Each structure stands twice: as C-alpha cells, then as structure tokens.
C-alpha cells in the first residue's frame, strides 16, 4: 500500500490546556494545523451492525458513545468510517468526543491565529503516520506501536481492510501479553488467510523484546521494526487509510478550500463577463440615441410643428 505524501504539521495533545501551553512555549506561524488528540474523553471503537440507513447508523453509534462518555447525545461529536459492507452487515470504526472539548481546542487555536484543518484520535493519526513512513506490502499483517505511558496500539489489516484497531493500557507489558495474542488470533480468524504474513513494530517499551519473541513463536512471523520516528503526522491525502476528522463540521478542509476557490473563480469570471456585456449594451444604446438625435435638426422640428398645425386648422 502507498500513501501520498500530502501532510501538514500536526500537534499531539491530551487536552486544550496542554495545547495552550505548547503554543505559548513554541508559537507557530499563523495558518492551518492538524491535531492528534487522546485521553479519556476521546473514544475510538470498532463496530459491526446490521445493514441500516446512514442516518440510523450514526444514531446507533451515538447511543453507544452516550453509554461510554456519559453525556447527552446532542453533546457528542462523532465521525465514522465504514470498512466493509457485506452479508447484511456494516463494519467500521468510529471516533467520538464531547462537542465542548472540540470547541475548546478550536478556541485555543483561534486565539493563536491557527485554524484546525484536521482533528482525529492519536491512534488514527499513528496508523496513518505508520503507513506514510513504511512500505507495507503483505496481504495480512499486524502493526504494534508502543506509544509510551504504558499504552500500545494494535492494528491488523487484511487485503487493505482494517479488521482490528484497539488501544491496550497496561501496568506491566508482560501482563498485556495474552491480551495482545488473543486480539491477534481473533483478527486472524476473520481474515482470508487465517494467519499473519508479517508483523511490524514501532516504539520502545520495557519487556518489548520478550513480547515480540512470544508473538514470533505463536504466529510464526518475524517482527520487523518500522520507522521509529515518533512525531505525529496528519495526512490529508485521499489515499489516507483513515479519513476520520472530528472538526469536519467546524472547518473547511484543504480539498474543500480548493473546490471553493474554483467556484469563486468561476463566479468572478461570470460576473466580469456579465459586467462587460452590460457595459457594451449601454454603449450601443448610447450610440444609437446619438445617431437618432443627429438625424434631426431644429428646422425639421419647426417644419413638423407647422404640418401638425395645418392639419388641425384643416379640420
């Protein structure tokens, strides 16, 4: 798989307060940025539901988010991406967060002359970034990323489709070993090949080597180190694996700005053409009026008045 390298500066933050401090300590040039956010209020979940209308699907996902975030449905911002629709079922991934949180991030950026072009969960940005920086060619493969703070991201792709995406928090990585194995086994059971062709790894953690050795034994693969760069990347390319943007309803994306620019240019050209046509019409009318006026003189006018008077006397 490949990903076009259309990226922008992306900040990774856990709260509006952290973002404010980051921008105060290191101001950015005014313009558009991306945000990669995480924390207890940022929800990322996979879903599999019976095939229903899009409006009903979003309502069903919102109800699940209500149960997990413990706030009212109208207070939740939610975006989803379908991964597969077959056999009467819809499967995909959704990201949800409180609207108030989104608005606080936007207000913070506005105060520093910045506009958010894209905002998504850190795990979404991490997977997009991994695809951007690594050439992944296997049919069925797993991605294991250690994000720090006793957390890892686990993803499995089968023929280009994401069949697993989850965060695993742990106190001791050795305790998370079985959970990682079970998650990978379940994902393999849903894939066409029923096994992993490759396992890609990024990041560092205590007991990492022990975990990788166990995974290599269980799944008969060799773990391959991916690009170790930890800086987040927010891809705006059409080829991005995930295109979930929590600020979709708040801001204008690069693609939308380009479309608006084209529309504005066309409208401007039409206005100029209409103005030119109107001016030409006025000029022609003015010339015709002058032509008519020049065809008569005062003696013709006096002669016409005399004829009219003669006709009236004849009556």
Question: How would you characterize the overall build of this protein?
Answer:
The relative contact order is 0.14. Strand 8 and strand 9 form a beta hairpin. This protein has 8 helices and 13 strands. It starts with 6 loop residues before the first strand and ends with a helix. Among the domains are: 135-226, ATPase, nucleotide binding domain (Nucleotidyltransferase, domain 5, 2-Layer Sandwich); 261-314. The longest helix is centred in the C-terminal third of the chain and has 41 residues, at 254-294. 44% of the residues lie in helices and 27% in strands. The strands form 4 sheets. A 5-stranded mixed β-sheet has the order 10-9-8-11-12, with helices on both faces. A 3-stranded parallel β-sheet has the order 2-3-7. Strands 4-6-5 form a 3-stranded antiparallel β-sheet. Helix 5 (173-190) packs parallel to helix 6. It is α/β, with parallel strands linked by helices and 315 residues long.
Please state the structural category: alpha/beta
- The radius of gyration is 33 Å
Q: Level of helix content?
A: 40-55%
Q: How would a textbook summarize the main sheet?
A: 5 strands, mixed
Write the layout of secondary structure elements.
Blueprint lengths: L6 E2 L1 E4 L2 H10 L5 E7 L5 E8 L3 H16 L6 E11 L2 E10 H12 L3 E8 H12 L6 E7 L4 E8 L2 E9 L3 H18 L7 E5 L5 H12 L3 E3 L8 E2 L18 H41 L3 H17 L1
Parallel strand pairs: 2-3, 3-7, 8-11, 11-12
Antiparallel strand pairs: 1-13, 4-6, 5-6, 8-9, 9-10
Helix pairs in contact: 5-6
């Amino acid at each position: 798989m490949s990903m076009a390298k259309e990226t922008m500066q992306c900040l990774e933050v856990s709260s509006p307060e952290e973002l404010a401090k980051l921008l105060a300590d290191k101001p950015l040039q005014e313009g558009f940025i991306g945000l990669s956010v995480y924390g207890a209020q940022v929800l990322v979940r996979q879903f599999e539901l019976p095939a229903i209308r899009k409006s009903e699907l979003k309502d069903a996902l919102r109800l699940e988010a209500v149960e997990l975030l413990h706030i009212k449905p109208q207070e939740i911002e939610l975006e989803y991406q379908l991964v597969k629709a077959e056999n009467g079922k819809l499967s995909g991934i959704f990201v949800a967060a409180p609207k108030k949180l989104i608005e606080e991030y936007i207000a913070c950026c506005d105060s520093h002359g910045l506009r958010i072009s894209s905002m998504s969960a850190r795990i979404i940005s991490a997977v997009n970034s991994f695809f951007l920086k690594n050439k992944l060619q296997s049919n069925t493969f797993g991605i294991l990323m250690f994000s720090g703070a006793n957390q890892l991201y686990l993803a499995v792709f089968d023929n280009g489709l994401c069949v697993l995406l989850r965060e695993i928090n742990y106190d001791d990585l050795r305790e998370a070993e079985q959970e990682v194995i079970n998650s990978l086994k379940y994902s393999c059971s849903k894939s066409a090949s029923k096994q992993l062709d490759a396992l890609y790894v990024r990041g560092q953690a205590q007991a990492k080597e022990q975990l990788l050795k166990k995974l290599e034994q269980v799944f008969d693969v060799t773990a391959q180190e991916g690009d170790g760069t930890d800086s987040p990347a927010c891809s705006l390319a059409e080829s991005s694996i995930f295109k979930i943007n929590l600020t979709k309803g708040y801001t204008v994306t690069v693609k939308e700005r380009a479309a608006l620019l084209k529309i504005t240019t066309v409208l401007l050209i039409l206005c100029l053409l209409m103005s030119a046509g109107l001016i030409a019409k006025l000029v022609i009318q003015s010339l015709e009026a002058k032509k008519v006026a020049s065809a008569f003189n005062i003696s013709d006018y006096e002669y016409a008045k005399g004829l009219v008077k003669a006709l009236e006397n004849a009556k």
